[in-house]
């Protein structure tokens, strides 16, 4: 299972991700490993944000009947999305930190006292946001 398949093409992690996946696929098709467990490789690639799913499916050699795309209609709970824009003042680091100070008011305004997911770009940002 490959979670976050959209990292393929990412400047920081994409090359490693892509080479690792390519290597596993290559090994699964070698004659020397024909009867080993890897020869029965089945890839399940997941992403909630991928825009070029058909390109990735072609790269992974997914047969047409093996591609499953699930839209928001499959969610058990309605997802409400908000996109808010803020002007960049100063450098990106300071701007990113300034957004953390705005979170409480934004959550109070839009959450209706229900659980909230906040997406950030790095593990370090996750800690700072918390």
How does this model look, in words?
There is one protein chain. The model has no long low-confidence stretch (mean pLDDT 85). The chain has helices spanning 14-28, 53-59, 92-110, 123-129; strands spanning 2-3, 45-46. The longest helix is centred in the last third of the chain and has 19 residues, at 92-110. The radius of gyration is 20 Å and the shape is elongated. By secondary structure, the chain is mainly α. It is 37% helix and 3% strand. The two termini are 29 Å apart.
Number of helices: 4
Structural class label: mainly alpha
Tally of extended strands?
Answer: 2
Helix content bin: 25-40%
Give a brief outline of the structure.
This protein has 130 residues and is mainly alpha-helical.
What layout of secondary structure does this protein have?
Layout: E1 2-3, H1 14-28, E2 45-46, H2 53-59, H3 92-110, H4 123-129
Parallel strand pairs: 1-2
Using brief descriptors, characterize the structure shown:
two-stranded parallel ribbon; 4 helices; 2 strands; mainly alpha; 130 residues; elongated
